[in-house]
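@channel anyone free to eyeball this complex?
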Amino acid sequence: MAFSSARAPRAAKPSSAPVGPRAARGSASKALPHSLRGAHRLRYAEEFAAVFAQGSTRTGVYFRIHFRPNKLPQGRLGLVVPKRAEPAATRRNYAKRLIRELVRSRLRDIQGFDLVVRLRKAILREDAPLARAELERLLGEVRQ
RNA sequence: GAAGCUGGCCAGACAGUCGCUGCCAUCCCUCGUGGGUGGGAGAGGAAAGUCCGGGCUCCGCAGAGCAGGAUGCCGGCUAACGGCCGGACGCCGCGAGGCGAUGGAAAGUGCCACAGAAAACAUACCGCCUAAGUCCGGCUCGCCGGAUUUGCCGCCCGCAAGGGCGGCAAGUCCCCCAAGUAGAGCAGAUGCGCCAGUGGCAACGCUGGUGGCGGGCUCGGCGAGCCGGGCCGGUAAGGGUGAAAAGGUGCGAAGCGGCGCAAGCCGCUUGGGGGCUUUCGGCGAGGGUGACCGUCAGGUCAGCCGAAGCCAAAUGUCACCGUAAGAGCGCACCGCGCUCCUGGCAACAGGGGCGGCAGGGUAAACCCCAUCCGGAGCAAGACCAAGUAGGGGAACGACAGUGCUGCUCGCGCUGUUCCCGGGUAGGUCGCUCGAGCGUGCGGGCAACCGUACGCCUAGAGGAAUGACUGUCCACGACAGAACCCGGCUUAUCGGCCAGCUUUUUUC
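replying in thread with the prediction:
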């Protein structure tokens, strides 16, 4: 099970978690937020665990997404790219970039949600459009 | 030009838009894991495998022995190395060059496919030899009795008692014999015998019959001799195999074989052990000399002489063995071993001399030898905040457990008592200025070293380099930092540069 990513979960303390919320104001001044900086990320193991435990799930060929309302003005993204799905480090990085780029352009769809995207199958470079379309479809289901 | 060899370098480029992570400057706020603006930086030659070596950090430092691991031609470089450089040697390549864990195989153990008698030294096997022994087979020759006791039967002699002869059965013995245990059967009318007839005075015949004896033939038993084979025994040379079975090659001479009319040419061989022995030599009971010691019996040491006998033995000689046959040599070179000289720091190379040519390979098989090796690793480790009883020090110390890489000894810890006050992935540091990079100069064949000047070149922490658009080209491989260096190995699209080699003037 996803060694590289599962490392974090255990530790995060509950007390330190709820700091992020306020940051959203700065970006809120802009019409469309395109940034995926600190406030838009899931950082702690407890946050991941909460999404897995309480969120909804949609599954496709390449991805499985978990999401849950977070009572914040912005959406937050977490990635799980297991070594089992993609053994080569280079292509694992490629998959993360692909996901981040796509989510960044669709930030509005996940506003107010914590989202975890989990890779299920290696994405070959020539299959990228397929994977991209699938992720867009899955993201579309978040708000329903 | 083409084909190659070696070394080095690059790792799509440019522009725009939207994004990501640090850094610097500045600004804003709800003051922190926040945000805005500007500037500048942002993966690799392998970042990989984690295979070596080191730095750094903590732990241990009480060691000793055994075990274990690594390395393995020589010299140098280096912080260190299993790396690099230079050299030596071996192999490969026409060559530039490439490859090589390259100490020891007379310390021991093991292994050596197939083939082969045999794969390691001692045999066994084939082959060869074979006196005696033993077994089997063949051929030839010989033998298949005698004496005696008892019983029975037959015949003869005698009036009878009884005696004689022969046969059979059982038993005993062996003077003699190479053998006597075992004989059985068949045929034939001729040698003997017997019967009948007949001739003759007789000796002696003739004719016919008979199958008793001898002889013949067949089978059988036994013995001897010879031959052959097996076992046992001996065995030096030889044994188409194989990567390898104990040196090789050349010339001359000799011999044999083949080819050729011949001259001549070609091929093969020139081995093996053994007996005897002169001289020289060794051992040798003992004798004698000198020195020393001594309890005066002798002892020790060093020379000398030395009977019988034994050993060794070049050479000589003698036959013998093997080979299709015969000859039963000589010289030289290479290799090998020992030794000396020269050159080299050394590995090693060159040369000279001597030699009874005696000993397969494998050590990335165990092993032996030499050298080196404390453990764990940045989740090391340090600090801070918040927070529960985990930790540290000292003293004592029997058992048990446990730690010190493994084992043994040994030492420590867990244990008890007393004292101290804070473990952990939440954060900060460690975290990138370093055995650093570039250029020049100097030293060195080189690896590398020294020096001057210049430069700062990722530091993330769910983890940063991407997406889209356009243009161009040789159409883009392998692949993503996680404490840091030096190496090795592996993966890899294409291309560039330098030096060199071969072929050579057109492939």
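from a first look: Residues 1-33 of chain A have pLDDT under 50 and may be disordered.
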